[in-house]
Amino acid sequence: MDRTKHFTTVDIALAGVFSALWATLSLTLGRLSFVWFRLPILCDFAAFLTLLLVTWATGKFGIASLVGILGSLIVLLFNPSPHMIGFAASSVLFDVLMLANRHRLNTEIRNMAIAALMTAISAYFAGLVIGVFFMGKPLDGTTLQWALTVWGVWHLVGGVIGIVTALPIIAILEKAHVRRIKDV
Predict the structure, then answer these.
(1) What is the count of structural domains for the chain?
(2) pLDDT (tens digit, 9 = 90+) per residue, 80-134?
(3) What is the pLDDT of residues 41-75, one digit of tens each?
(4) For the residues of the chain, what is the DSSP string, one character each?
(5) 43-52 in b/e burial notation, b at 16+ Cβ within 10 A?
(6) Residue range of the domain that includes 69
(7) Which of 19, 46, 62, 89 could form a disulfide with 70 if both were Cys (CB 3.0 to 4.6 A apart)?
(8) What whole-number distance in Å separates Cα of residue 3 and Cα of residue 183?
């Protein structure tokens, strides 16, 4: 894989495609989950499924952040809800944390375990940011406690669903010897 430090046109194109996927999943599944159950589970699924797949496809630092920020901005255009700022922030955290395995995602147990752990941390962080700053509750100790024990955990559940979905997809693509677009 080409490990250049700069973004290529293929990287930018993939960021655009995955940003559109983020926005589409967030505006459909994420919104339904929140309207029907008042839970953010599928919002996190949309975010972290997309982040894991784009990290696998590009393997570069910065692309996941770009996808999270662009995807969040697209969602904000159609559904002006400030909670997307929490998802954008969590995508930046995810990107930084994925430096632990140099943005490599493949079928190696170590890489998948690191990706799963970093996703879980980032999803929980999204829940904390959203719960504390964007849920319309007064900023006090009970809000922080609620964000730590309830809202962060629900976001974590959504992130785990994203992990459980994305990692088998990546494993199947790796087993089928599907090469990343830029490797072709």
Answers:
(1) 1
(2) 888 899 999 999 999 999 999 888 888 889 999 999 999 999 999 999 999 888 8
(3) 999 999 999 999 999 999 899 999 999 999 999 99
(4) ----SSPPHHHHHHHHHHHHHHHHHIIIIIHHHHHHHS--HHHHHHHHHHHHHHHHHH--TTHHHHHHHHHHHHHHHHS--TTHHHHHHHHHHHHHHGGGGTT--SS-HHHHHHHHHHHHHHHHHHHHHHHHHTS---SSHHHHHHIIIIIHHHHHHHHHHHHHHHHHHHHHHHHTTPPPGGG-
(5) bbbbbbbbbb
(6) 9-183
(7) 19
(8) 10
CATH code, domain with 103: 1.10.1760
Look at residue 122 and tell me if it is in a domain: yes
Residue 2 within any structural domain of the chain: no
Q: Which residues fall within 8 angstroms of residue 64, CB to CB, at 6 or more apart? A: 51, 54, 55, 91, 94, 95, 98, 103
First to last CA, the chain: 10
CA nearest to 83, candidates 21, 142, 154:
154
Asked whether the beta carbons of 119 and 51 are under 8 A apart, the reply is yes
Report the C-alpha gap between 32 and 37 in whole angstroms.
8
